[in-house]
Amino acid sequence: MAYSNIRYTEKVKHFTQYFGLLALLLLVWEALSRLGVIQPIILPPPSQIALVFYDLLKNGSLLKHIGISVLRVLEGFGIAAVLGLTLGMGIGLSQNLARMSDLIIQVIKPIPPIAWIPLAILWFGIGEQSKVFIIFLGAFFPVIINTIDGIRQTDHKLVEVARILEVSKSRFILEVVIPGAFPSIMTGLRVGLMVAWMCVVAAELIAASGGVGYLIMDARQLSQSDVVLVGMITIGIIGKLMDSIISWIEKKVITWKPVFIGV
Amino acid sequence: MNNNNSVRPKLLIENLSKSYWVNNDELKALQDINLTILNGEFVAIVGSSGCGKSTLLKIIAGLENGYKGTVLLGNEKISGPGLDRGMVFQEHRLLPWLTVEKNITFGIKDKKSKVTATTVSEHLDLVGLSGFANAYPFQLSGGMAQRVSIARALVNQPELLLFDEPFGSLDALTKIQMQKEVLRIWEAEKTTMILVTHDIDEAIFLGDRVVVMSSRPGTIRKIIPIDLLRPRDRSSYEFTQIRKAIYHEFFTEAEEPFSYAI
Amino acid sequence: MKRFLNIVLTGVFAFAATSLSSPKAQGEEIRLATQAIPAYAPIFVAKHKGFIQEELAKIKTTAEIKWTSFPAGPPINESFAAGQQDFGFLGDVPAIIGKSAGINTKIVALTSSGAKTLAVVVPSKSAISSPSGLKGKKVAVVKGSYAHHLLLLVLQKGGLTVNDIELINLSQADIATALLNGNIDAAAIWEPLITKLSSQGTVRVLADGTGIKKGVLVIIATNEFVTKNRAKTKAVLKAYKRGADFIKANPSEAAQLIAADVNLTPELLLPVLKKFNYNPAIQPEDIGEIKKSEAFLLSNGLIRADVNIDSFVDASLTKEIGIK
Predict the structure, then answer these.
(1) For labelling alongside C98, which of A170, B132, B221, C178 has CA 20 to 30 A away?
(2) Mind telling me how many Å the CA of A92 is from chain B's nearest CA?
(3) Would you tell me which CATH number, out of the four given (3.40.50.10860, 1.20.1560.10, 1.10.3720.10, 1.20.1330.10), belongs to the domain A47-253?
(4) What is the pTM of this model?
(5) Which A residues 90-149 touch C at CB under 8 Å?
């Protein structure tokens, strides 16, 4: 955004709008806690949460848990991306494959990853594999569905041009279909990464001994609501960071804006 | 006009008819079209929306099949699209992710030829866009993008260049500019061109002949030769007379302004 | 506009009135949080025999007893934190954790104790023969339970600390599956799971609480309930004592009566009942055990605020009803 063009008063107004509501909520929350209206075990005050946050950061455990979870997410997401992209492209480009796979995909898609936990434990045990499997399931469907969509949305008008220019099938796929599908594919990857991260808590229900989801479940066992909240907030922040990174990649890859055809 | 019968026509259309079926009703898009186009000619086809002129062009381009009658390019029956018939559409239809230069290169069949780079820059010059080689389509104005589209169509030196209402989405001033450009390119390249338009002035300005089509079903009502020297003055007496004559073709019919989309 | 406001406000107050009035109204409900394990057998006996109602009738009052069953202590803490329970039956360790986290309760009696009722087990085919063999192994336990404490004591016996093993937090149910599938190397569990798995031949006991942890389990009650309903509290405790006496006098009959409540067949339940001491009175040595648990929690960072056990434990109620 071209902030330099907006007057100073406008900037102040925007700033207040972004952060104002949040700041107000925090103040009210803190005040109610101190007045004893909200009990700390039900909802700890922001000051307590901040303290716990600081402690966990200082003794390095929070960073360690973040690292463990991020690694799991990247593994699960990585597999989902590779499989989702290849299968998605295959299904998008082949009518036969599409018809064969449609039923299976549509039936499995609505099943939430958390429901797979019992099977995951039976198939993969309680180690890393079952957790990565859950995360993979979460990320896979956004990637494959958006990849298929992106390919199906290939502009018919460009197809006509390609026919006239006698473009070979392989060139057509590589130079017209896939670049055209990039925006959809990037959306799929972005959503997939987000869902992968959201599945971390579900995945770490499977006998984890580290990770942010584990941190939350562990704190729950010990009635430490403040740690639970720290865990939740951490998930939110890391999720936002991951999204920003992928957005940045998206901007770098797609240097052309989709052009509206016609004025 | 070259009326020598020993010269083989570039494009020969005989008894062309095409129908569509909508809900078990037959819609006659084209009926008994007969048209001969000679090498190097510029033929403009004019008619209101839905008269079948675009369908006719698409059949010539090979994008539509299932017609009755004969359509020959030289000796060959037209059965599908190909590099020998370049086409410029109403939208520029450039690949948004390629630069201007790469878009034109995209049209070249044999890219390994060393001639490619020179050809591309030559055609860029031809359409007056030298210096814009590295621009992306989204950075170009409508008229500029359309010019790239023309360059791309010309780069394979097609037998025919087909224009399907190419300036319909441009503003009036740019449109006149582009008409002049096309005229200049035609005079430089001498490619046979067929332009479909609903703009009568455009047809008269550009064409050696103007084919007037009527709708429902689409037939050729009249073919008017334009024997004026180019560049033509739109406000000259002769131009105005021809314009009147063509308007007359459309507005003698007491038909409501009606169009259906095929 | 005025009419609209009136309707809205009436609605709000009606809602508030109904939601705030139940279930805390006097003389209406007593809410018990239990676990389906033999450690709390007396209360199930009391349930079947109607002892609680009889004791309440003696003090000329009635109440509806609301029973909720939980899989372990920590979920009971959650329920207390939400203000949904009056009495809870759980181990000393989770009781202390709850208090430290700010739940306003006190220990009003023991439910039972028994050093053999909690144990570290290994798959029967396991090569591990002593606590030191647990080094580097995957050991599962319900974190925050009294078995967690036992595990660390057993590790200590083998010269190990918690850092020498891979500690995995699993529920009792998941531990059973994991032991069957060989996904874990050992686990710290309590009855009836020990007997169940041993009788199936799945596990054998590596070490139990003998000599290291008595396995004190307690009854907690909210301070609010005890203050407002001292007589009712004593009625519940009396009913519990009667249940305990019944088990002592008629173990076979008791086993038949409550087998379904604790997920064991009467034949398997009978020997388990004998492992427990169901006397609700709080002895000085019990307080000592509870203090050891508190120290364990504090030193392992499982609680952050120190809990004063002397004020947490209220032995006055059991004294007043004459239990020794």
Answers:
(1) C178
(2) 20
(3) 1.10.3720.10
(4) 0.77
(5) 121-122, 125-127
